[in-house]
Design goal:
Elements: E1 7-12, E2 19-21, H1 45-49, E3 60-70, E4 73-81, E5 86-94, H2 102-115, E6 126-131, E7 135-140, E8 145-146, H3 147-153, H4 160-179, E9 182-183, E10 192-196, E11 199-202, E12 209-210, E13 217-220, E14 224-227, E15 235-237, E16 240-242
Antiparallel strand pairs: 1-2, 3-4, 4-5, 5-7, 6-7, 8-10, 9-12, 10-11, 13-14, 15-16
């Protein structure tokens, strides 16, 4: 396939697992399907045992720093107090001011239900929900922000190998979703968040849909049937196309 990047086996980036771009005359190597590079916040068995969808309010510290805003309200930086450590988190905060916003709340609850089932290094993990001063969705933080804003601001610093690295990680996240019978129906650069320049995570699961194990298609608005075998999810960075499901 002409759009796939060929990679050089002899060199590696600072993360130790993504090869540098291919050099003419050298034998290419496919990127390893390695999803064990980063630990889950719940890698500790004690944390896994007590994992719940709803969190107590006293487990959260909320900063005044705004990370962003959307239809639901705002996103603030915070700290989640686990049994043995504390981790930085992003907190989606929804304040219901009218009955018309109930649909937004329902969408947020649906997103939480989906995200709580997922545990992969390249997908933003949902820590839990908290209902206190408002409804709060607590997630892993990706402090470098969305890819669509990061790339234009760093266009002189991002190499082709860096682009390939991020695309590889997004493809691993999408592979995980497919293996667990999920389709992300709004994959775009704005929904890929960066922990840092070399680490991407897929986010925003409000439009995701769980599939029954024996289904091989899903229906959009009960009208459009898309066969799973023909879905091509395209991730565009600097006119480089990748990800074939």
């Amino acid at each position: 396939m002409s759009h796939w990047l060929k990679l050089r086996p002899s060199a590696a980036n600072s993360d130790g697992y993504t090869p540098e771009p291919f050099i003419a005359g050298e034998k290419p190597r496919i990127l390893p399907m390695d999803t064990s590079v980063y630990d889950s916040p719940y890698s500790d068995p004690e944390e896994i045992k007590d994992r719940k969808v709803f969190l107590k309010r006293d487990m959260l510290l909320i900063d005044e720093v705004d990370l962003g805003a959307g239809n639901f309200g705002c996103v603030k930086k915070g700290v989640y107090k686990m049994k043995r450590r504390q981790i930085d988190v992003a907190i989606k905060m929804l304040k219901l001011q009218s009955d018309s916003e109930k649909a937004i709340r329902d969408e947020m609850m649906k997103e939480a239900e989906i995200m709580h089932q997922l545990d992969n290094p390249y997908i933003v993990r949902m820590i839990g929900l908290c209902e206190a001063e408002c409804l709060m969705l607590v997630m892993e933080i990706a402090s470098a922000g969305p890819l669509n804003k990061f790339l234009p601001s760093k266009k002189d610093e991002v190499s082709i190998s860096n682009v390939a690295e991020l695309m590889h990680q997004v493809s691993l996240g999408m592979k995980y979703l497919e293996e667990h019978n999920f389709v992300h129906r709004d994959l775009a650069a704005r929904n890929v968040l960066l922990v840092n320049q070399h680490y991407a995570k897929i986010s925003d699961f409000g439009l995701s849909k769980a599939l029954a194990v024996d289904n091989n298609y899903y229906t959009v608005m009960s009208l459009i049937r898309i066969e799973m075998e023909t879905i091509f999810i395209t991730f565009l960075i600097y006119t480089v196309y990748i990800i074939h499901m």
